[in-house]
Amino acid sequence: MKFLNCMVVFCCLVLMVGCNDSGSGGTSTGAGATSAGEFSIETNVGNAFSTIFDRKVEVFGIPVYAVPGVGDDRLLHAANIMAQYLDNDEDGVADNQQVLSEMQGAGAMLAMWKTESDLDSFDEAAGTTAQDLGNDETHPEWHLNGHTGEFDAALEEVWHLITHAGYAKAYPNIFGEEPGSLLADAMDIARGGQFGSVPSLYPVGAWFTYDDVTCDYPCMATEYFYWTMTSVLGAQENRAGEIAHEWALNTRALVEFGDKAVYDLITDPQYSLPTMLPDGSYRR
Q: Which residues are CB-neighbours of 108 under 8 A, at least 6 positions away?
């Protein structure tokens, strides 16, 4: 199973375990036992992942799977975040059908885990594109606490899946993760050059300075799309000090005036990108 990750695309997994280890936050009780908004949790049976994931939620045909240790509240929260990204105006229809079709065709799936051993049990399945999200890095309360405290990584991991399996495939010349796309061209400016690997020192004036040496060029593009989009949507406003080693333009205004190339790209209405930050309360 191929995993995308907030740190590395495809293979390498970096655990981001938060301080809140309250664990389940809910009970794994089977089909339809727990629901939130438009979604109910189903017992996961009859597929290649049934021995790993005991529950799932379907969002526009994209499964969000969870191992037994994941809380129902976290699973439902991740599903709602995905729904709000894909249907940002919450009218019950995905805002960009082409992106959704690409995700479905790629076998896109979100896999929620509790411990590192859960990750070890995952096996690659043909025709899937998987993104992992940890129970203890999923923080619904962040949205209720004025965007302070432990950051809700669901905003990042779900978006990575949507951009990699959706936007990059639907618009390869625009949002593709290889050199030459409009997104990649903007990223090259933001990094101070086109680097196939992480430079030992970024040029003075670069504002995207991601430094994980295991992150290759497509990985960097995925991260850049995340930082720019969530900064425009307001997710990074209170995180300037925390994220400064990776990303400097943490507000909409800073992106608009400091990285005009990408700002014009991600606010272009023809691509139906989100205009409001998801908060985990999808209601159509």
A: 62, 128, 129, 130, 131, 161, 165, 166
SS3 192: coil
Give 76-124 pLDDT, tens digit per residue: 999 999 999 999 999 999 999 999 999 999 999 999 999 988 877 776 5
Cα separation, 243 vs 23, in Å, equals 26
What pTM does this model have? 0.88
Collect all residues with Cβ–Cβ distance below 8 Å to 43 and sequence separation of at least 6: 30, 31, 54, 55
- The torsion defined by the Cα of 279, 49, 13 and 232, in degrees rounded to 10, comes to -20
Per-residue CA distances from 245 to 159, 191, 212, 271 (Å): 21, 12, 11, 30
* Residue whose structure tokens are 């899946």: 161
